[in-house]
Amino acid sequence: MCGRFVQKVAPEELIEIFGAEGPVPNVPARYNAAPTQDLAVVRFNPKTGRRAIDLLRWGLVPSWETDLKGGAKLVNARSESLAERRSFARAFQARRCLVPADGFYEWAPDRTPHFVRRLDGRPMVFAGLWEGWKDPASGEWTRTFTIVTAEAIERLRPIHHRMPVILGPEHWPAWLGEAEATPAQLQALLAPPADLPVEAYPVSVRVNAVRNDDPTLMDRAA
Fold first, then answer.
1. How far apart are CA 185 and CA 188, in angstroms?
2. Which terminal residue of the chain, N or C, has fewer Cβ atoms less than 10 Å from its own Cβ?
3. CATH class held by domain 4-104+120-152+163-195
4. Is 97 a catalytic residue?
């Protein structure tokens, strides 16, 4: 699963990385991003033909929910059941997004927290789904997202059996809906390559508390 991650790349850099257009949102650096927080997500608008960086609430809330509370439960979506599960099926068909991250935290069976990052220091890009939810009382819209997960690659399995799906730039157009792709082709993107260039190392238990949000959380534990 993925319940915490780091998102510290400046908005201007995100615009450049993803070739996005439009206004740049005020995206504060997050070193311990947690569910229900507003975080940067990349979406494609088929009407304008452009990518945009938007702030969405982490924890997908299906349109039929009566309130936002259920979103705290749907922070991850299992890749194997996207097309069948009611909460994710419609988003899998038409509302896919990318979630930039500088790494993520995972807890081993003994509850030791680990930080997982790319070996080359470049940002990761998670596969995500998004939804729009309309408050029945106020009529206001809230956009929410979830991170797609898959079976962990072998080197990460001792820590946890699941991991976020990490997509390379060559797969972004299909996942965003810019390029045509069948459900089967999309599903094929969700299997992490065995040689994914990542490393994992233990970090301080300070990451356990959401109130702690600073760069030292990524430091290797002594």
1. 5
2. C
3. alpha beta
4. no
- Entry pTM: 0.96
Query: Which of the 8 DSSP states describes residue 100?
Result: E
Q: Respond yes or no: is residue 106 known to be catalytic.
A: yes
Q: Which two tokens stand for residue 18?
A: 């993803």
Question: Are the beta carbons of 63 and 37 closer than 8 angstroms?
Answer: no
Residues 122 and 14: their CA atoms lie apart, in Å, by 12
Going from N- to C-terminal start, the domains of the chain cover 4-104+120-152+163-195
CA distance 59 to 63: 13
Annotated catalytic residue, options 16, 97, 106, 199 = 106
Kindly report, residue by residue over 35-44, the tens digit of the pLDDT: 999 999 999 9
- The DSSP-derived string for 27-88 is ---EEEE-TTSEEEEEEEETTTTEEEEEEEEES---TT-SSSGGGGT-SEEEGGGTTT-HHH
**Which residues lie across from 104 on neighbouring strands?**
5, 116
Kind of pairing, strands 113-118 and 198-202?
Answer: antiparallel
